[in-house]
What we know:
The complex is a heterodimer of chains A (283) and B (247).
Chain A: H1 2-12, H2 18-22, E1 26-35, E2 43-53, E3 58-62, H3 69-77, E4 84-89, E5 92-93, E6 101-104, H4 116-126, H5 131-144, H6 160-173, E7 178-182, H7 190-206, E8 210-215, H8 218-224, E9 227-231, E10 238-243, H9 257-282
Parallel strand pairs in A: 3-8, 3-9, 6-7, 7-8
Antiparallel strand pairs in A: 1-2, 1-4, 4-5, 9-10
Helix pairs in contact in A: 4-5, 4-6, 5-6, 8-9
Chain B: H1 2-7, H2 9-23, H3 35-48, H4 50-82, H5 84-97, H6 106-113, H7 117-141, H8 145-153, H9 158-195, H10 201-210, H11 214-242
Amino acid sequence: MTGSVAKLVSANGWERPSSMIDAPQIVVEGVGHTYRPPSGRPVLALDNVSLEVRNREFIALLGPSGCGKSTLLYLIGGFLPIESGRIAVEEKPVVKPGPDRGIVFQHFALFPWKTVRANVLYGLERAGLPRKEREERADEYISMVGLKGFEDSYPSQLSGGMKQRTAIARTLAIDPKILLMDEPFGALDAQTRSLMQVELIRIWERTPKTVIFVTHDVQEAVLLADRVAVMSARPGQIKTIVDTRFDRSDTRMVKSKAFIEKVDELWDLVRIEAIKAQEQKTT
Amino acid sequence: MKQALIRYSPLIILAAAWEIAVRTGFVSALALPPLSDVVLAWIDLAHSGELASNALASLWRGGVGLFLAIVVGTAFGVLMAWWRPVNALLGPLVEAFYPMPKSALIPITVLWLGFGDGSKILLILLGCMLPVTMGAFNGARGSEQVLVWSARCMGASRIRTLWDVVVPSALPELLNGIRTALALSFILLVSAELIVAREGLGYLIGFLGANASYDAMFAVVLTVAFLGFAADRIYQFIADRVLAWRE
Lengths: 283, 247
């Protein structure tokens, strides 16, 4: 019942009741995680991480590779068991994956045996929508990401950018409240990446959702996010959270002094951690 | 069509060489009846209905046995990859029995189920299951974690992902395993029928050989070879269609 009301409200672009905006939608409290490789010593990946994410906020998790930022995302997604601490989404503890939290992976994770349309339809079938509505929804989201005409292509026939557009359409089609993005543009070339960033902003403005966006690209984090959580090298902790709200509709924003300074500020924070992470690798 | 003709032209050369070698007395007709006689014998066999009835008996046994081997083998392989206790239980058994020459099972299945269809079907089930299991297991084990996660977060239950993600991921290797099983099923079937049976193509080969009807015996041997070849080509054609998404 509440779900349908919320959908109606957001569809009309009205503000939600203030109580829903004030209470954090996602609460991560004192979460730790130990990675146990099949052979070798266990590694403490996350240590005592706490984070609050507000409804419809776009937050980036920024940190050097191996700092556990993806692990944190997978924990929120319910893909990994929570070993210590707690994670709650809208006051309900996370125990397993669900369609309220959609995810987009770095390497697309499309079903290679399904066409673009069949990939997008998959979640809608699982949701038990009637056939006609499924097909309309799929078409709508496929055109939204600009893949009209490629509905019957298999992922192997698409470029990296098109694969990721398909993955985004597939995830958005199930209308999750929360969008988890795991370095979604990390496998794309620089030009495609830049285009996809603009496109994501456009899509996000049309269908506002809470987004948790994992990246190691400082500029990308500042460009896309309202807030950037900087993570430390292993064991991953949230070192600081920086406000990075800019006017994203202004295309010259990335050239502004304020933007460049913000990127520099974050770079300095990340650099120290990146160096630490490098040292961990060599020892 | 023209390409196929060129591709298989060595077969035509071989057939011609066969005929010439026997007709010129280079090879004794006792060891190798002339191909033209073999063709005539084949027409006789086909005309009398003996070929069709025996072929049908063989294909029925082979088809049922192979079908069961595919179903059971796939289930074993996927479950072994999916659930560790199953692997712990079945893994060592598969390893131990995989290299065993499956024809050694012929007397055992006869002991259990007698001379009829049952023993042949059981033999093919047991003999052809393991390549399917290995294919399904290796394929399913290679299925990507992120695909399972994607399906899960789009609302699929854990069991559901088995069918929706793990099985299709395993398909390329599984289909390879089935191809091996298909070839194996012909070998096992004909050997079993040669040794103990009252009908079937293998039985017919043995029977004609024992009665010194060598041209007819060769006709049946060639029929078996052709059926095996045709089955493989048809299978490959279907498998290519099923895996069209790979490009």
